[in-house]
Amino acid sequence: MSDDFNMSMRKFLKQVGVTSQQAIEEAMRENDTAGKSFTARAVITIDGLDLEHVVEGKIEGAQ
Asked: Known InterPro entries for this protein (predicted)?
């Protein structure tokens, strides 16, 4: 793959990571999350490609 492709993909994934973490942290602060476990799901799709990538995991609430 080209350097331009790699850079654009890394930039996109960095934006996804940073903005997702900010949104999750804000939601956790605004709610009573102590001792609770939450199922998280991220879905990435790409217009024009037959791609739907799903990542699931657990996020533990603040203690």
From this structure: DUF6494
Alpha-carbon distance 28 to 46, whole Å? 28
- Asked which of 11-15, 19-23, 59-63 is least confident by mean pLDDT, the reply is 59-63
Query: Could you tell me which residues are beta bridge partners of residue 29?
Result: none
Structure tokens at 3: 């350097």
Structure tokens at 5: 């492709």
Which residues are CB-contacts of 41 (< 8 A; sequence separation ≥ 6)?
54, 55, 56
Chain position carrying tokens 């998280």: 40
